[in-house]
Each structure stands twice: as structure tokens, then as C-alpha cells.
Amino acid sequence: MTQLTLGERLTEVHARIAKAAQSANRQLDEIQLVIVSKNHPADLVLELLELGEANFGENKDQEASAKAEQVKLRNHSASEPTWHFVGQLQSNKVRSMLGYCKVLHSLDRPSLLSELVKQLAKTPESRLDVFIELNLTGDPGRGGILPENLLSFAQSVLEAKQLNLLGVMGVAGLTGSPTSYFETIAKASAELRTIAPEAKFISAGMSGDYEEAISHGATHLRIGTAITGNR
Fold first, then answer.
1. 183 and 171 in contact (C-beta within 8 Å)?
2. Topology of domain 6-228, per CATH?
């Protein structure tokens, strides 16, 4: 069986996103693809930039910071990458992350919020887009804000003037159907909009469940292996 090329996998995913959006009566331009490039070299990012992609997700600062620098030095495409941090971020890596990242999908605890505020204050002109990560399983080891604590935490985020709250992020659990998880995310998003109407975006959906995530309102899809292949 012939293996698909990177470009063919990308085309297939875009087609499936378009079909899922149509089925959900949604506009395709409401949905942003973030290609999770973790564990892959800068070469893959450069190839995807040449293919017209611009949004890339990473989950480890040490890898991401080095990769972002390599891509910056070697990029000859018409696209400039926008880096999204999608994994749990250690507070001592905040300063480094701010050097290359434009969007943080995993604001998951008060201590991280405090460090973001502290580091951003050193460059008053800086801004960072953020999603509040939800804990959908109740397992404290997974990180995230419990849905019942979302509004109180969101209020603190809104008070941080250098942060732009985009919305909520969630990862479906490993057991059971993803449907209940996506329903919880959608409900949390609606609750958040009661105090922050502009925070209307939802980061949800990965390689195995992004079509269902679209049907539940996901606006930012974090897709890795379906496009990049295994590393």
C-alpha cells in the first residue's frame, strides 16, 4: 500500500474539515487548523509553510524554542509561522515561550497566570492570546480548570490587560465517547460568553475526533499525526 505524502495527508484533512463544517451548517472560515508539529523537525514545518499553512502547535518549550529559531532562519516561503503552545507549560518556561509564541492554549492554573502577568509586564507593548484549559475528567494530574471554577478564574484572566482571552480549550478523555466531553466544552464556552462575549472561540479536536469537535462548535483544531504522520 502506497503511503500518502505530507501534501496528500494535508489535502485529505482539509477536505474532511470542509465536509464536517458543511454537515454542521458552519462556515469554513470559522475554523482554524493548528498543525501539531511536536516531535517533528523544522524541515516539516518549512514544508508545510511552502504548502500554505501558517499555524503550528508545540507542547515542550525546549523543543519549540529551538525549532522556532531554526524555522525563522531558514524560512523562504510567503508565510510566517504563528506558534501555538498547546501543552502544559511550566512556569519557569514562560519567559522563553513568550519569545516566539503568539497563542497559549493551555492556561490551566492561577500560578501560571501570575507568571504570565509578571513576565509580560517587562514588555508593556506585548500581548498574548490565551485559551483557558478545562479539566474534563476531574483528574488533577491532567491539569486544567474545573468547569465549575471557570468563571471565577476567567475573571482573573480578564483583569490581566496584556492577555487576550480567546475562549476555552479541552481535550476529550481517553475513555468513553468524546461526545460528552465536547458537550461539556460547548456548555463552558457558553457560560464564559456571559461575562466575556468576545471569548467565543473553542480549541478542541485532535486527529481522532476533530470532525465531531467541529459539530460541537470547535473553532481551533489541534491536528498532528493525521497530517504529519508518526514520528
1. no
2. TIM Barrel (3.20.20)
